[in-house]
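seq:
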Amino acid sequence: MLTTTQNAGSAIFLSITNGKLVRRVDLGTEGATERTNKNGKQVAELFYTGMIGHVKDLSIKENEYGKFLMVTVQDVAKDQKYILEMNFSSGYTTTFLKTLPSIDISQNVEISPALIVDGDKKKSVIFLKQAGAPMKHYYTKDNPKGMPDLVKVKIKGKETWDDTDRIEWLYNKAKALFVDVPF
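struct:
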């Protein structure tokens, strides 16, 4: 669980790697894991199993590394703001956006990513809990409530599933939850 209060008042940026929340920190930070990233640079990271706070807003960021969902979470008790960054076309983003309408956004929510390994397949998901109860997907295969289907496309001769329409639709539905909400 995310418990650090360093940088109180300013945003702490988090990403998700292998089912854990990750915070990049200075080399030599106590408790941090150091590694060489794919660009050959030495980095230090702290890992967490989850976080608790109010989901305040969603936005999209695009850069040379791709498109990302940015989730603003406020831990009111610690007066701390977090920005959680997820690859836009990922299982983390999809499960988060499918479940978000099931929560009361004016209340704390526990956000816990996971990487589920089943044989040679890996499935990235996010679990949301509120008041100790796991929240269920609002949009499901059996009750899609207008959610677009995945589209089978051929890329470089190989068939794959395209989630572009679905993820954009889920984002727009989730973003609408924050219109005129007093916090």
